[in-house]
Amino acid sequence: MKYYCLGIKGAGMATLANILYDLGNEVVGYDDVTDHKFTQEGLDKRGITIYSDNTHPLDKDMILTHSVALKEDHKEIVRAKECGLKIKKYNEILGDLTDTFESICVSGTHGKTTTSTMITQILDEVYKVNYFIGDGTGFASKDNKIFVIESDEFNRHFLAYHPSYTVITNIELEHTEIYKDIEDIRNTFETFANKTKNVVVACGDNENVRMLKLNPKTIYYGFNENNDVYAKNVSLTDEGSNFDLVVNKEEVGHFTLPLFGKHMVLNAIAAIVICHLEGVSYEKINELLSKFHNAKRRFAIENINNNVIIDDYAHHPTEIKVTLEAARQKYPNKELVAIFKPNTYSRTEKFYKEFADALNVADKVYLTEIDCNREKKEDYGNVTSKVIFDLLKNGEMISEEEADKLLKHDNAVLCFMSCASIEHLKQNYKSKLDNK
Questions:
Q1: CB of 157 within 8 A of CB of 176?
Q2: pLDDT value of position 296
Q3: Long-range Cβ contacts of 87-92 (<8 Å, 24+ apart)
Q4: What is the pLDDT of residue 293?
Q5: How far, CA to CA in Å, does 295 sit from each of 41, 106, 256, 265, 311?
Q6: Rounded CA separation 201/105 (Å)
Q7: Alpha helices in 127-243 (DSSP H)
Q8: pLDDT at res. 436
Q9: What is the pLDDT of residue 25?
């Protein structure tokens, strides 16, 4: 089959395009963004053509699928309809794929990407698996039985999926432009999880997760001893994290992670439970976890002289807080600097106080203006980054052209955080640092 993927540089669409190509389909794409993005790596490797204008011919046999960030009046969607292309929703294609394989659907407000990556790396070493990771990384072979898929609640996408196993890492209020309140989110997760054929693996420490009425067999995990699986003797050092794991009141082993923050321990427990359900021994899981390398833009570390740059996808207050706490764990003797680009007016309007509280974990905060490609600024009144800025203890506004502001920090950890593109600001800083 032939697929035309619009918004192909988006993390989800890039991943889907990779998988469709691997399964023997013809794939081309389009994106308004002409700059190179980190999500392109797999597309470039496969030689998938990416257009950025509308002069190329369209084959009427193509199936068009597009990012939800693109509106129905986008020039390429209009042109595709005029040419008679069949249109199929992004999540419907993924839903068909989950029905084709034994699918492990990893969901939750936070931690989906890292947990999916952990499960993928372990199972791929043992069995070879298909995977859809939300950093633009995807692969599939018709010969593989298992499909690990990061399952996003945005726009209720995951309701089209058919999970054999479901992971729920946590549930918090998020995507307030989609969900009216926390009850709406809980109900949606409940509907999704109850489609599970085999087992639900859920974080029992999370109050909203515990409120779900789940029909499939459910294994709860966390730090609390009322869970079926829990970690004890947790040690967080500047070299990583260690813990003992208890399963059904029996200690099954000691685990070592080259990762930082208690949230990473929770992600690891979920991965351990799933992989053991798939027949992998605890000893083998620990061996592979100890060599784990995280997904793109997930606490990605780069050292330049005596400064450390951390690039992270954090865009929700909870994610920002745990990212900064993890940086403090690994680098306790360095100044901690947060550089944050807010994404979406609705999220900023709803969580501005929480954003400020999370950012105040850092010694110094730099804030950009809001970057949003799916909401109109005029729909949100006076919502700007200033609502966060006014609550910061030590804050400063910054733009991509003002990277020299960061040069005054020496022996520091600079955390660049956003789900929007913060790459230009980071690269400008690195260039100025090299020329200093």
A1: no
A2: 64
A3: 87/63, 88/63, 88/64, 89/65, 89/160, 90/12, 90/13, 90/16, 90/65, 90/66, 90/157, 91/155, 91/157, 91/158, 91/159, 91/160, 91/161, 92/160
A4: 79
A5: 13, 15, 18, 16, 11
A6: 10
A7: 182-193, 207-210
A8: 65
A9: 97
Residue 45 is encoded by which pair of tokens?
């490797």
Closest CA to 104 of 282, 280, 277: 277
Q: Tell me, what's the pLDDT at 135?
A: 78
**Integer Cα distance of 294 and 116 in angstroms:** 10
Q: Is 83 exposed, middle or buried (0-12, 13-18, 19+ CB in 10 A)?
A: middle
Residues in the chain where the model's pLDDT stays below 70: 295-297, 373-375, 436
| Three-state secondary structure of 68-91 | CCCCCCCHHHHHHHHCCCEECCHH
Measured distance CA(62)–CA(355) in Å, rounded: 43
CA pair distance 90, 233, nearest whole angstrom: 43
In this prediction the pTM is 0.80
Strand order in the sheet with 62-66: 50-51, 26-30, 2-6, 62-66, 86-87
Q: Under a CB-based contact definition with an 8 Å cutoff, are residues 163 and 202 in contact?
A: no
Please provide the size of the chain in residues: 436
Q: What is the DSSP letter of 370?
A: P
Q: Which domains does the chain have, with CATH numbers?
A: 2-87 (3.40.50.720), 93-289 (3.40.1190.10), 300-434 (3.90.190.20)
Locate tokens 């369209």: which residue?
58
C-alpha dihedral sign at 415, 303, 259, 10: positive
Residue 67 β-bridge partners: none
